[in-house]
Amino acid sequence: MPIILLAAALFVLPGLLTIYNIVGFFSYKRVKKIFKRVVWFVTIVLGSVYSHMYINAMLNMDALWSDQLYNDDLHQALWEGGVPSFIVLVCVGIIGLFILCIRKTSQLSPVVIVLCISAMYITAIELIVYCIQLAKEPICLPLMLAPANYLIIVMTIIREKIMEWNENPEHQSEVYNKEGALGEINRLLIKAETWPVFALVFMIPLLGILLGVMSLFGQTPDKVIRTWTETADWTFSTKIPPQNLTMDEHYLCTVAAGGHPEVVKPVRMGERHGHRVVVNRQLMIANAFENVLEEKTPRFHRAVRNFYDKYGFPVADYIRPHKAACDITYFVMKPLEWLFLLVLYTVDANPENRIAVQYLPKRK
After folding, report:
1. Which DSSP string corresponds to 71-130?
2. Per-residue pLDDT tens for 131-169?
């Protein structure tokens, strides 16, 4: 039962929330506003939490563009120096959305409403760019569900506020017949249907103010752009990273060679199944020992290989992403390394020659 509930929370609930939000856009009066807003709140919170969980569980996106990666690992999609700017520009739209959700149009002036819509536009643009940035990798498609729901919610709120304003007979032009610049702006915005268009115009000065404030805290305007470009592997990336190395994730010694260099002491690059791999002495000794087993006792070698394939794969797969775990594995394998070396020196006339040729490229 707990597994079923967990599966429902992770897979069924996001789908149900999305369907509800889509239906809510077309059913303005059929859905109670309070319940709708609760669903919006749950959607935004769970969308953020689930996206973070998915990134941690399925992707390795913490590495800088210049870091050496292995196998199918990916570099960070957002430049860490621009992440604060990204967060601010996303939060400003959430604040605008929150204001429009808790306040009726009769409690807000058209200027405030349009500014809130402008703030939501800024966040929408950021999230659209985020989706385009991730679109290059199919495994990132689930991360686009939360931004899609935000866009649906924004369109629903704009539509709702326009209808709410027009249904109130008090919202006539004479109410806003005031002197000064604010009165002129209010008279221009008296027609609610124009709000989405004016919000695009107001978005420019609002964005300028936000960028000016962020500059005071070190988040200069150029960082908004560099957030996307100072990356590798993604749509807007401009950096060329080191080529990913291949590390056979199923073999403990191979995994251990991917630990911290000062611990596992790599000696050179090698080749395995046509891919470049990091090679240290422990790995070469283990592979040389397997060569001896395969040559001298093929049946015993198959039995050992079957046993390891059954029980060693899960362990190796678990420790592979963690360098500290690779370091520990390196030390745990030390006694076996010494045993393998003893066998090699016992049965092989030139053990060091056999060790030295491991993982060298095959001659064509």
Report:
1. TT--B-SS-GGGHHHHHHHHHHHHHHHHHHHHS-GGGS-HHHHHHHHHHHHHHHHHHHHH
2. 999 998 888 888 999 999 999 999 999 998 888 888 776
The one-letter code for the residue type at 138 is P
| Chain centroid to CA 163 | 37
Contact 268, 357 (CB under 8 A): no
Whose CA is closest to 257, among 353, 165, 325? 325
pTM of the model: 0.69
Q: Are the beta carbons of 217 and 243 closer than 8 angstroms? A: no
State the angle between helix axes of 281-296 and 334-347 in degrees (0 to 180), rounded to the nearest 10. 50
Q: Indicate the residue type of 238.
A: T
Closest CA to 40 of 18, 62, 56: 18
In this structure, how many other beta carbons lie within 10 angstroms of the beta carbon of residue 212? 10
The tokens describing 29, both together, are: 């009066």
Other C-beta atoms within 10 Å of 256: how many? 29
Exposed e or buried b for every residue in 296-317, given b needs 16+ CB within 10 A?
A: eeeeebeeeeeebeeeeeeebe
Tokens representing residue 352 in the block: 């060091």
| The residue type at 356 | A
The answer to whether the Cα torsion of 327, 333, 337, 338 is positive or negative is: positive
Strand, helix or coil at 61? coil
The first and second tokens of residue 219, run together, are: 């988040």
Q: How far apart are the first and last CA of the chain?
A: 57
What is the distance between the alpha carbons of residues 235 and 42, in angstroms, rounded to a whole number? 30
Q: Is 55 exposed, middle or buried (0-12, 13-18, 19+ CB in 10 A)?
A: middle
Residue 331 pLDDT: 85
